[in-house]
Amino acid sequence: MKIMSNELLVVTYRDALKSGKEKEWIKILKDEIKRRGLRPFKNR
C-alpha cells in the first residue's frame, strides 16, 4: 500500500465505505487505521 498521511487514510476509508464496492480495500484501510490508533468518525 502507498504510504498515506493520517488525514488521507481516513478520507480514503470514508470514500471506500460510501462506494461499498471494494470490500478487501475497505478491510486493508480499516486495519491500517486501527494500527495507527485513529478514529475515522467522531461519534465512534
- The number of distinct β-strands equals 0
Under CATH, the topology can be stated as Helix Hairpins
Q: What general form does the structure show? A: globular
Give the distance, in angstroms, between the N- and C-terminal Cα atoms.
25 Å
Mean pLDDT: 89
Q: How many strands, what sense, and barrel or not for the largest sheet? A: none
GO molecular function, one term: protein kinase inhibitor activity
Protein name: Sporulation histidine kinase inhibitor Sda
Pfam families: Sda
Organism: Neobacillus driksii
Q: Could you explain how this protein is built, in words?
A:
The protein is mainly α. It has one domain (6-36): Helix Hairpins, CATH 1.10.287. Helices cover 64% and strands 0% of the residues. The protein has helices at residues 6-19, 23-36. Helix 1 (6-19) runs antiparallel to helix 2. The N and C termini lie far apart (25 Å). The model has no long low-confidence stretch (mean pLDDT 89). One of its GO terms (molecular function) is protein kinase inhibitor activity.
